[in-house]
Amino acid sequence: MRSHAGHPRIGGTRTARQLSGVTSYDWSVSLGAMPLGYAPVPLAVAGLLVLVSCAGTSLVPGVRRLTWPTPPQPRPADAAGVR
Question: What are the b/e assignments for 15-44, b being 16+ CB within 10 Å?
Answer without folding.
Answer: eeeeeeeeeeeeeeeeeeeeeeeeeeeeee
